[in-house]
Write a structure and sequence with these properties.
Two copies of one chain form a homodimer.
Chain A lengths: L5 H11 L6 H13 L1 H18 L1 E2 L6 E2 L5 H4 L7 E5 L2 H10 L5 E4 L17 H10 L4 E4 L5 H13 L4 E4 L15 H9 L5
Parallel strand pairs in A: 3-4, 3-5, 5-6
Antiparallel strand pairs in A: 1-2
Helix pairs in contact in A: 1-2, 2-3
Chain lengths: ~200, ~200
């Protein structure tokens, strides 16, 4: 019992395992919560309980939701015939924050990876193929990270969808990016994909 | 609803307010918890609930505990006649991790601060004075931070305890510290407090 009570040790150990937290920040967060028991600790426990008991995967796109289908899959306004393929729900959220994409999503649940032994069967690619016909999809936008595994997965998906237009996010200089700080690969990609002003 | 459900938005907003976390790391932590619902999310909710319903302040030293008095105040082995005065429970935990101090603690709950309008009445100094007689205390070790407010508080406490030996933690070069990286104040303090080899 390093912190007075076993429950407290247990709580700190669990908080310390969350991504982005370590033992030190977990102790700090727990002390902060205890000091504000009614404002922070108990409401947070309730919120976790509520999310834990209601949240599940959308059966269609694997987004996080509280019913069989998520709001995006249920919305008529999002039935634009476009599906953005993302690796993870975090990437879906990032796309939604930009507010530009008006179609639907498909969360793969990972990328093909020879090193981690992730094959097509581990990803939600068959479900994506089913959705093409079911939702009259005309364009599949591959929005995976620009890594080797992301590119491999993009090419594999393009091969599996012969009748559909498959596009991918552009690569190039990020907004606000300075050339001096960019890596060679990004500059090469931006140069190769240069466009007329 | 930026993240699919209102409960989820609420949970992420609350996590983002914890010290050391921001919106981005809160999202990451929440997604991690949802992916490991039975291993992380629900146990964490239980642990928070349990700590929230059991934890309280030791009536004697203001340490965190689950009964009227904490284990340290209850232990006969810690009745050494020494009390270490710390600012916060986090500092008490830091002292306990070093494992060197065998006496009891007194958590002040802050330091005197003219800027933040913290006077002696806001701190637990009267209780400290009560404990001197009640626990046959012979030495009060001031273990406050080496800040202006910490030093002011140390001198104020020393003035309030005329019959007791009041000491404070030594100032100097930290273990593993290199002179080149130390500030002038620390080097001055270390030089003034030099000791014979």
């Amino acid at each position: 019992m390093a912190h007075g009570t076993e429950d407290l040790d247990h709580l700190i150990a669990m908080m310390a395992k969350l991504p982005g937290l370590g033992p030190r920040s977990a102790r700090r967060a727990v002390l902060h919560m205890i000091k504000k028991r009614n404002l922070v600790l108990l409401p947070l426990a309730d919120a976790l309980q509520k999310v834990g008991s209601t949240v599940r995967e959308c059966l269609n796109c694997a987004n996080i939701c509280t019913s069989d289908l998520c709001d995006i899959c249920l919305s008529d306004k999002r039935a634009t015939g476009q599906i953005a393929v993302v690796e993870d729900v975090a990437d879906l959220w990032a796309m939604e924050r930009s507010g530009v994409f008006k179609g639907r999503y498909h969360v793969l649940g990972g990328t093909l990876s020879a090193l981690d032994a992730v094959g097509p069967d581990e990803l939600r690619i068959p479900k994506l193929i089913d959705r093409i016909a079911a939702e009259n999809v005309t364009e599949v936008i591959i929005a995976l990270g620009a890594t080797i595994d992301g590119l491999t997965t993009a090419h594999y998906i393009a091969d599996q969808l012969p009748g559909v237009s498959v596009t991918s996010l552009a690569q190039g200089v990020p907004v606000g990016g300075e050339l001096d700080y960019l890596d060679d690969g990004t500059i090469t990609a931006a140069l190769n994909a240069r466009k007329a002003l």
